[in-house]
Amino acid sequence: MSDTGKTIVNSWNEWDPLRHVIVGRADDCHIPAEEPALDAKVPEDSDMRGQWGRRPQETIDRANELLNNFASQLEKRGIRVDRPTSIDHSVPVETPDFSTESQFGCMPPRDVLLTVGSEMLEATMSYRCRWFEYLNYRPLMQKYFEEDPKFRHESAPKPRLTDADYHPDYLSEKIGVEKRLKWTAEKFFVTTEEEPLFDAADVLRFGRDLVVQHGFTTNLKGIEWLRRHFPDHRVHAVNFPGDPYPIHIDATFTPLRPGLILNNPQRRLPDEQREMFQKNDWQIVDSAQPAHNAPPPLCYSSTWLSMNVLVLDPKTVCVEKSEVYQAEQMDKLGMEVVEVDLRDAYAFGGGLHCCTADVYREGVCEDYFPNR
Ligand code: DAV
């Protein structure tokens, strides 16, 4: 028992009881300048097209108010909360291979940090403006390294992000949703296979199994890199036709507890990829509809942040306060719902799952898919 007190970092899945988490900040968040990977994701009809720069201070203050309230709500439940140290996001990113005018922010730690057991892995990232985003979390990584003798701080190889990483077909202003759906169904995404690329938010942890979305932000080489990096895990590539802008798995496929996953009804997992779940009696159910017809202003994400929930334990889940249909469904599924007001922070990088990263959940690495 004496040395468990020193364990700071431990998390093997998305649902075991949460004890320690990082909650992001909206400080100094910028709408980044145009670049290939970002342009491919900003919807063609979005109010964000063609504008960039620091977000208005009053929206930053409002988002921080909500993030701070969320952090206190978690703390009141006995969960330890750490926050990033925001760097100056107005500083351009310049490497020998590319340069871009500003950075992004540190609201969504989930995109950058992947916790697997006692390891926290900094993702390669795939947007130029997010190349240095790990720096916001380095003070925490240093602290965990000093406090926890078993903590493994890892960083995936920094990608070069030259133009060779992006398909020029996606650079066109007007592609149209129909063509986008055809391309994504054929797994023709904006990122090429030039070098390994992944965002941490494309990975879901199911104990021994890691499920990774192949899409705009994660390529097959990135998935292969994860496979070699985690030799004791089984790494599964999935993709979700029906999503014209596939970035990050966490508004598409949401495990709630062993045996139960919500799937976005517009982005269903293809039949041939369901086998591992079916063979092991996991249920995949359609998520409820979002409560909104459109995302809030200047937001990258879709209305499906409704299902971007944070599971606190297998019976308790945080759902955004305005997402009444999602809350109702959770209730029917036997989950206790904790309402969290976060919608005015969505534009800064996502919902309740995005704006958090696991540090410690109880439990050990289990095999939830013994039937192969
Ligand atoms: O549906 O726009 C958002 C995911 C953010 N981590 C979407 C995906």
Which features does this protein show?
L-arginine/glycine Amidinotransferase, Chain A, globular, alpha/beta, 372 residues, binds delta-amino valeric acid, EC 2.1.4.1, Glycine amidinotransferase, three-stranded mixed sheet, glycine amidinotransferase activity, 18% helix
What's a concise summary of this model?
With 372 residues, this protein is of the alpha/beta class. It has helices spanning 36-41, 57-76, 138-147, 177-185, 220-229, 275-278, 324-332; strands spanning 18-23, 30-31, 53-54, 80-82, 93-94, 99-100, 113-116, 119-122, 152-155, 203-206, 209-213, 234-238, 253-257, 260-263, 283-286, 310-313, 316-320, 336-340, 356-361.
Structure in words:
This protein has 372 residues and is an alpha/beta fold. The protein has one domain: L-arginine/glycine Amidinotransferase, Chain A (5-stranded Propeller). The protein is 18% helix and 20% strand. The protein has helices spanning 36-41, 57-76, 138-147, 177-185, 220-229, 275-278, 324-332; strands spanning 18-23, 30-31, 53-54, 80-82, 93-94, 99-100, 113-116, 119-122, 152-155, 203-206, 209-213, 234-238, 253-257, 260-263, 283-286, 310-313, 316-320, 336-340, 356-361. A 3-stranded mixed sheet has the order 4-1-19, covered by helices on one side. Strands 7-8-9 form a 3-stranded mixed sheet, with no helix packed on it. The longest helix has 20 residues, at 57-76. The radius of gyration is 19 Å and the shape is globular. The chain starts with 17 loop residues before the first strand and ends in an 11-residue tail after the last strand. The model has no long low-confidence stretch (mean pLDDT 96). The structure holds delta-amino valeric acid. Delta-amino valeric acid binds next to loops.
